[in-house]
Pimeloyl-[acyl-carrier protein] methyl ester esterase (Rhodamnia argentea), 350 residues
Amino acid sequence: MSRRCFSLTESRNWCYRSAFAKSGLRSAVTNLRDGTVVHCWVPKARSPAKPDLLLIHGLGANALWQWADVLPHLSPYFNLFVPDLLFFGDSFTSRPDRCDSFQAQCLMRVMEAHSVRRLSLVGMSYGGFVGYSMAAQSMEEGAAVVVERVVICSAAVCIEGRDLKEGVLSVNDLEEAARILVPQTPARLRELMGYTLSRHPPLGLIPSCLLSDFIDAMCADYIEEKRDLVRAILRNRKISEIPKLTQPTLIIWGEHDHIFPLELGHRLKRHIGDNAHLVVIKDTGHAFNVEKPKEFHNLLKTFLVDLLPPPASSLPDSESEKCTTEKRGSDDGSDPKTKTTASTKAPSQA
């Protein structure tokens, strides 16, 4: 696609870069010497008095777009590291591996290259898959980087291939999902916005020229590689083979998530067990951090800065999750009876 003389999206990119710089971050590129290069925003001056925090974006955005609004709330407390995942921003690989565990291995090596030995992390949507894998890898003996606390946002880590066939997801065809999640037309981008936001303006009123500008600037590179990332999520994925994290873990989900329904959040909470808290953000969808950012920021501060669990209240599983549990209980070893999860009346993206 040809680049435009003026791009509103590129203008916002400039603003976001400025926001990152004002938050004390600089651009850094790490060559992993195996055909893989990872771009990451890192502290200009790392403070030994602050812990290190890694922020991992999802498929719908690069590091700039996902985290610019969050930085002012976290930079006073942490040395922030904000990478572009492979095939986003200036990160890429010539290697054929597309699984989230490979993304995680690359980020572990990047952190090691920056002399980070202990960190906490926040993973948004696809970034949550990567973050979960990082946390699991850090539990292995001899791991160079230790993950201390984990925040997983709207990431269906405990999804399985059969969920697609059984109608758990809004889309039951993997190729269709890949086309929606990596949109190449204004119509596809409108469709993605409809799935992502719980409340949105009439999407037909958004000018196609603005959507085309976003696609040209953000979605025109590495199209098939990004779609391969989507395809790899479900490839040979079995709950019984997913490690159970031992780190304190906060799971945040939008009440009306149409990308990964809430029942998958309950499933992840049960899989991890008592180390996890599930917070459901009322009246939001997959992009809860866009719809209710203040509550999202408060949850991050409570869990990562104050080192406290989120406000606890009873939240029963949905009826659909109960049915799914009855079918799967014997497969993943989980107890189909209800467990207490953490919720919040304070509502808390993609």
Remarks:
- The CA atoms of residues 314 and 340 lie 6 Å apart.
- The radius of gyration is 19 Å.
- Confidence is low (pLDDT under 50) at residues 318-350.
